[in-house]
Amino acid sequence: MIDHDTLRQRFNPDGSLLRRQQLRMLELLLELDRICQKHGISYWLSSGTLIGAMRHNGFIPWDDDLDVEMMRSDYLRLMKVLPHELPETMTLQNSDTDPNFFYYYSKLRDRRSFLEEKNNYDRMLQERGIYIDIFPLEKQRRWIHVLGEKTTGHMYKVWRTSTDDVKSMTTIRRIYRFHEHCVYPVLRGLCRLLHSTVVTSGMGIPFHNPRYIDDIFPLTTHDFEGHSLPVPHNADHLLRGIYGDYMQLPDLDKLQLHVNKLEIYD
Hints:
44% helix
């Protein structure tokens, strides 16, 4: 039996910096949910956020990020409408809105905070507030995704070993554009020829755990921090396929967090 009250008191009691971050992420999520409902765009809670929903009916008490997923067709629609629907306190961040953003997914950012990640990949981004990640998924054979993933690994290596960030970012932008306009269209053409019931993170996103359409659709809802939000209809089977017994708590003394520094402005 999980003692939720004890976990909350240890990791994210009311008023703590982490709890304030979680509530700010929840604001972002609810705004995303509003816009998706307005435009008929399907999305669902994913990864640790989905584990939190199923195991804690909200955030994992120590979790400092929030992830959602959607099929690429819905993702492309969302990218068009989201910038025009957001309040001034929030902004969409992707390669179109931030020239130094080199991920093949997007972030919805809060503009009333400052966040510094431990991996330091965010050091030249224009927006660095609290965020939630928005991941596109694509139907593709797993080996195709792994191939696409390997082609982008050099970008991360360049950035990780950079001694001149301006020069390194110029190199990264070239690699990014080459993959986006040359490599990935070819791989997507191959995916259309090779039918697959497997979906993984979109091209260039370094997470290739397989999901299955039948586990995801039709979507259902689950309680998350007091709100009924979309989840895969067989979330238990999906999560067990990726994480094993996700209902078992990890070693609470060996947790790895994402945030190095955080400031929240009211």
